[in-house]
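Duplicate of #3305? Posting structure anyway:
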């Protein structure tokens, strides 16, 4: 029987997703105890992590060490290797990493979803369901060591205990649902008592809404866990999108009056102008279009699935066949009279003839450069196709 791929439902088993969103999402922490230490083996194992650290070329910052609540300087555990005229920077020194680990340092593998396919597929699945970006970090802590000091995250956190055990102390938030711009500062922690203390064992899951302070320690057992982070878009982001429309209003582009920061009498008329401007912008705004533009940009920001390198290939010519990306994974945006292409989190400004050529490509399931003779000259079409292929926008069809 084929095993169910890891997605949100499998992460939350035996709890259903409806119960999770109704009772826990953005509200309170959740600790699922399974008593199944091998539950996450299809995703990644402790042996996999040892191999990644020992044998791969995961250079800094893909591998980091943390101790005492902060990250160590990369010079402590990496080295630069000179090979002829080339220098390889930030190469992990496994002996130094092992020494620091035995002294209580935590080994972190940030954004491992980029290079570990099972974690990449899980994050892709979560992003498709949430419409919020997902990432996967891994943390390995030796026994009898402290992890990070009390802090909160500005993203939603799912902790997947892969191996060993780790004790968690959870504290009430000092800022409820902080925006990603409201990062933690030590001054916000006043030494309050925890609202929950628990120990994660292999196979368990912990969900923490953003803003909940937490700290960790290990007992005699080491700990290895994956943190899945969901970096949410908020209503504040949508509101800031609306406020950006102010730059299209000539009146709002006028300079504030001379002395506005030091003359008390100017503050009251400025307040009235601000209120009037907000009402005028609200009356003129096309909120349907604003929401559509925002959501299209969110979809187009999703990273494309990694592709494989193949040595046996033929150079791109105007006779080569390509397929465009799926609808909803890119967007054309008009901004102050200029056309932009949003794709994979990057915005490209394109001239009108180039935009027309790209739209013509996207109107067909497959195409060749020769099929677009009405758009650009031959050299222009070939250069555009090669560029769009390089950024992952176009896929070569055999």
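Output from current build:
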């Amino acid at each position: 029987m084929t095993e169910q791929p890891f997605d949100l439902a499998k992460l939350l088993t035996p709890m259903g997703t409806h119960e999770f969103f109704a009772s826990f999402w953005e509200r309170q922490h959740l600790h699922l105890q399974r008593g199944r230490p091998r539950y996450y083996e299809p995703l990644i194992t402790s042996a996999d992590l040892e191999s990644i650290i020992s044998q791969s070329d995961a250079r800094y910052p893909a591998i980091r060490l943390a101790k005492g609540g902060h990250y160590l300087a990369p010079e402590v555990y990496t080295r630069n290797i000179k090979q002829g005229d080339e220098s390889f920077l930030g190469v992990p020194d496994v002996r130094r990493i092992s020494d620091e680990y035995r002294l209580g340092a935590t080994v972190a593998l940030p954004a491992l979803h980029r290079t570990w396919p099972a974690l990449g597929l899980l994050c892709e699945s979560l992003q498709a369901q949430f419409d919020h970006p997902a990432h996967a970090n891994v943390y390995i802590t030796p026994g009898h060591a402290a992890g990070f000091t009390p802090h909160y995250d500005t993203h939603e956190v799912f902790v997947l205990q892969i191996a060993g055990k780790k004790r968690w102390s959870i504290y009430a938030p000092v800022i409820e649902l902080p925006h990603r711009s409201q990062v933690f500062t030590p001054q916000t922690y006043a030494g309050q008592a925890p609202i929950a203390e628990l120990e994660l064992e292999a196979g368990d899951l912990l969900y923490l809404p953003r803003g909940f302070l937490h700290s960790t320690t290990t007992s005699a057992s080491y700990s290895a866990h994956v943190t899945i982070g969901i970096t949410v878009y908020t209503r504040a982001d949508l509101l800031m999108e609306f406020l950006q429309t102010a730059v299209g209003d000539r009146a709002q582009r006028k300079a504030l009056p001379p002395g506005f920061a030091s003359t008390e009498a100017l503050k009251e008329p400025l307040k009235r102008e601000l209120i009037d401007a907000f009402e005028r912008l609200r009356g003129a705004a096309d909120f349907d279009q604003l929401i559509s533009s925002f959501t299209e940009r969110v979809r187009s920001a999703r990273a494309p699935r990694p592709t494989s390198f193949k040595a046996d290939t033929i150079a791109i010519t105007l006779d080569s066949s390509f397929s465009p990306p799926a609808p909803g994974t890119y967007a054309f945006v008009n901004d102050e009279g200029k056309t932009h292409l949003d794709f994979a989190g990057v915005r490209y400004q394109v001239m009108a003839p180039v935009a027309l050529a790209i739209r013509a490509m996207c109107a067909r399931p497959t195409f060749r450069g020769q099929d677009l003779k009405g758009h650009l000259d031959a050299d222009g079409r070939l250069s555009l196709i090669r560029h769009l292929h390089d950024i992952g926008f176009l896929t070569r069809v055999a």
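Confirmed duplicate; merging threads. The first strand starts at residue 30 and ends at 32. The radius of gyration is 26 Å.
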